[in-house]
Design a protein that fits this description.
By secondary structure, the chain is of the alpha/beta class. Helices cover about 45% and strands about 15% of the residues. The chain contains 13 helices and 12 strands. The strands form 3 sheets. Strands 2-8-7-6-5-3-4 form a 7-stranded mixed sheet, sandwiched between helices. A 3-stranded antiparallel sheet has the order 9-12-11, with helices on one face. The protein is globular. The structure holds pyridoxal-5'-phosphate.
């Protein structure tokens, strides 16, 4: 049997995630400090874990309603109304998913016909372009740049629009750049979405981790609730990556279309995770704020150190990623990461893992302890100093 003949063409042409290969190497290096992982270093707050344990003790081991526990959908509805603005009916406008990952996938599959186009910001979360391809859509990246701190520039979307565009896929605060979007820019983008009759998929998974200004959801702007799917989850703000639970809120007809796929491919999110999520929304806010304050301290430290050592770095306004430039050291971002890992045992991710617009940058996650960040910063500084010395010697020859 020739495997070549049995893997679907659109799957064959998908690239493997660059991050995965890199971290296979890191996992073999016990002394390495990893600033590469996109997940909180905090363990899920105890009361949330306990809610899951209690549910297990009570024998809650069944499937749930395909849409998720009604108790959770009600909590989601009131949390979203207070944190993001719009009100959603827990019966018909909320769907509990297996993380935001599933929600992105089923939203795209529910909307796209083959060849439909999706506009999205780049650099971006690694799954966006592959998810569009898997839904037989066409991914149209719209670049952001370091001069504007990788923030949203609505004109870039207006320029990139072309016939066949059906979806605007947004992510604020942004992985990997920490960019955010202010109300004025979002209003302009909302106007564009209405004019071009686009559906907006808004991935706001880092919303609680906003350090400057308030988080504004595009779903709360006039005329947007009826054309927006708001995606959020528990992985980042609540430090619950392993629970695999997220949700989508949107107009009934879109949630219903996503539900059709969800019920056949997932059935429902795990019940123990849903019980934990109820507790997170009821009583977890203070824990989230405490974690956020710690991320902010770490951010201020690592961004200052990067700039002092010559790795130009804008201040990420949200998420837990710094995205410094490595352009002045004569190495491309991939070589920079490999040599840094080999020579100083610190792992950061090449910016191009997040699309071509990440060229010349690396992503360093500050979701690691302050002490480890200090040690990592010292090692990175040693490395960039050695690069500068190499460059001086090369010029002298
Ligand atoms: N969206 C973004 C922007 C992310 O960075 C991630 C994870 O890194 C996800 C979605 C996936 O989240 P989840 O764990 O809820 O599937």
């Amino acid at each position: 049997m020739n495997p070549e003949n049995y893997v679907a063409e659109h799957v064959k042409s998908l690239p493997r995630s660059g991050i995965r290969d890199f971290f296979a190497i890191v996992s073999e290096m016990p002394q390495a400090i990893s600033l590469g992982i996109g997940e909180p270093d905090f363990v899920t707050p105890w009361k949330i874990r306990e809610a899951s344990i209690f549910a297990l003790e009570k024998g809650k081991t069944s499937y749930t309603d395909n849409r998720g526990l009604l108790s959770l959908r009600k909590e989601i509805s009131s949390y979203v109304a207070s944190f993001f603005g719009p009100e959603y009916d827990p019966q018909s406008e909320v769907l509990v998913t297996v993380g935001v990952s599933e929600a992105i996938d089923i939203a795209l599959r529910a909307i796209l016909n083959p060849g439909d186009k999706v506009l999205y910001l780049e650099p971006c979360y690694v799954s966006y372009a592959p998810s569009v391809s898997l839904a037989h859509g066409v991914a149209i990246p719209v670049g952001t740049d370091s001069e504007h701190s990788f923030s949203l520039e609505p004109e870039s979307f207006e320029k990139a629009w072309q016939p066949g565009c059906k979806v605007l896929l947004l992510n604020f605060p942004t992985n990997p750049t920490g960019g955010t979007a202010d109300r004025i820019k979002l209003e302009r983008l909302a106007k564009f979405a209405v004019e071009k009759d686009l559906i907006v998929i808004s991935d706001e998974i880092y919303a609680e981790l906003t350090y400057e200004g308030e988080h504004v959801s595009i779903a709360q702007l006039p005329g947007m609730k009826e054309r927006t799917i708001l995606l959020h989850g528990f992985s980042k703000g609540f430090a619950m990556t392993g629970f695999r639970v997220g949700f989508a809120c949107g107009p009934e007809w879109l949630i219903e279309a996503m539900m059709k796929i969800h019920q056949y491919c997932m059935m429902c999110a795990p019940i123990l995770s849903q019980e934990a999520a109820v507790e997170a929304l009821k009583n977890g806010t203070e824990d989230v704020l405490e974690m956020r304050d710690q991320y902010q301290n770490r951010r201020d430290f690592i961004v200052r150190r990067f700039n002092e050592m010559g790795l130009g770095c804008h201040v990420p306004r949200g998420s837990f990623y710094a995205f410094p430039s490595v352009k002045s050291f004569g190495l491309n971002e991939v070589d920079f990461c490999h040599r840094l890992l080999r020579e100083q045992e610190v792992a950061v991710v090449p910016g191009t893992a997040f699309g071509t617009h990440g060229e010349g940058h690396v992503r360093a996650s500050f979701s690691t302890s302050y002490e480890k960040l200090v040690e990592a910063a010292d090692r990175i500084e040693c490395f960039v100093n050695s690069l500068s010395e190499e460059n001086v010697s090369a010029q002298a020859v």
